[in-house]
Design goal:
This protein is an alpha/beta fold and 329 residues long. The chain has one domain (29-327): Aldolase class I (TIM Barrel). It has eleven helices and twelve strands. The longest helix is centred in the middle third of the chain and has 18 residues, at 146-163. It binds ligand PBG. Ligand PBG binds at residues 124, 126, 128, 136, 171, 207, 210-211, 224, 280-281.
Amino acid sequence: MITGKYPNLRLRRNRKQPWIRRLTQENMLSPDDFILPIFLIDGKNKKEKIKSMSDVYRYSIDRIGQIIDKAIKLGIPMVALFPKTSEKLKNEIGTEALNEKNLVCRAIVEIKKRYKNEIGIMCDVALDPYTSHGHDGLIKSNTIVNDETIEVLVNQSLLQAEMGCDVLAPSDMMDGRIGKIRKALDKENFKQVQILSYAAKYASSFYGPFRDAVGSNKFLKGDKKTYQMDFRNSDEALREIALDIKEGADMVMVKPGMPYLDIIKGIKDKFKIPVFAYQVSGEYSLLATAIEKKILNKDAVYESLMAFKRAGANAIVSYYADRLDKILK
Ligand code: PBG
């Protein structure tokens, strides 16, 4: 690979000016690479700050136009919707997930009505915003039960598809759910609805601020280690991905992002499938706080995002996506 040696070979020559650095750059970022998460809240005319995530807000449905307009103007292809379900609507079995008037359903209908196919909509498939215990599935005798949970997830998927969701993103990590969801979608003639599987989702401490944003933090009992992946493992991620591809996933997600770049690269090298990365809430808050306190300069954001492209990600879910005009310059 190395074709010469010092002093006739000097790698610094290709770095001497911005124009040559631009010519030889190996990776690029554009708005096409981004998915913007949006937090939803009940009520009217609300744009609410989130304590653990500076410059990120929860929007009531009558105000989501503000953020969707911005996403479209920036050229972002898709948004991801996350509800902060009011406490009184939460219960043991997450019934609200199947209510066609729940926050996510109403938001999908509203966005599709106003924007048609100008922007894609992605929705989580999981029960944690709706359960009183904060887990992604149903609990029986202190266990998150797999197969019974899938039955609910299938119905949640069908409901979101019916409302007009473009991309279903199961983030629950139950075994076998992708196949069951695909089968049900096809049977009900939602053949064009895509599945973006959170196939390699780790039990991570980096989700803390998100759980605060959707209000599940104070409810969560225990951890999610019996269903989300063990962060000591990487071969296992490849097995998860292989299974979800076989079951019909159109795209796969790795989550969290930056601490898991090796997983993104491993998947990209092995499976030729679109791989998305989620720069999760904890990564966001770390950066945002350090920048706020002037510990880091704001170019750290661009650098953190470029790392995903270098690792092989096709797209990035990032809470910075609504500020791309400033970040990508
Ligand atoms: C829920 C879900 C989580 C995130 C996205 N969907 C949290 C969790 O699994 O506890 C985390 C996103 C983030 O931290 O930004 N299934």
